[in-house]
Amino acid sequence: MSFDPDLLDCAIIGAGAAGLTATIYLARFRRRIVVIDSNASRLLAIPSSHNYPGFANGIHGEELLTRLRAHAAKYGARRVSGTVDRLERLDDDSFIVRCGERHWHARHVILATGVMDVEPDFPDVKRAVAAGCVRYCPVCDGFEASGRQVAVIGRGKDGLGEALFVKHFAQTVSLLTLDDMPGLNDEEQARLRGAGVQVVQTPVAGMRYDGADAMHIDLRDGHSLLFEVVYVALGTLVNSGMAQVLGAECTEHGELIVDAHQQSSVDGLYAAGDIVKGLNQIIVAMGHAAIAATAIHNRL
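The structure corresponding to this sequence follows.
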């Protein structure tokens, strides 16, 4: 490839924990980069993270995001606002990243576009999330449910695994569904019974946050149940469409499959964070980003 003064070493798409960590690393490696921020990081929805190391009293997701942005800016990293429309791969294996009328040409790309939680379609969900009454990740905050009355809501029996996980912490756990509960096989019934998880057969009709640290779950038969915490187990939507268009290998749910250096099956296209198959955690996303950024630096 001939020298192009406008050619970037790397374009980073997404500016959450993974994207900004990759930005910090590549900026410190003195590489020519841009990070494109759609301001949609899931960090913004975290009321307080207590399993992010070094913050024993917890840290708000927005505060962590602010700190990461400031850290990247310290090294002169260029962060631009916008949502990427299209990612193209050229014949010379470089990439064009398009965002409206703007575009960037880069040797490599790190996708850090993450996932979106599927929210239940009930009022006050966002307020309840901010209050810690509705949660999405028992790995992140199961400890904070210790000794509390918890519900896990999925579709069918999709929430079974999360209900068993949370019961390790909670005083009581009830498994509920938005759809009809299918029959549980003998092994599933034995596991739930052994863990002390109550299965509610009547589907959920609605969910209400009372503003006083409690969630009311209304059932289709007219009954209402009260819980201190509700875990939503409706899955996530993976923002991997741009990579899939380029032919990147992914799971049936759209999570990208990467190698030991976080490179996808498309040469030069790397991925970090929740978009990658694996454990969705802030520190895991940061680890992905460190590996990807270092791999890109070493191949330049």
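DSSP finds eight helices and 17 strands in the chain.
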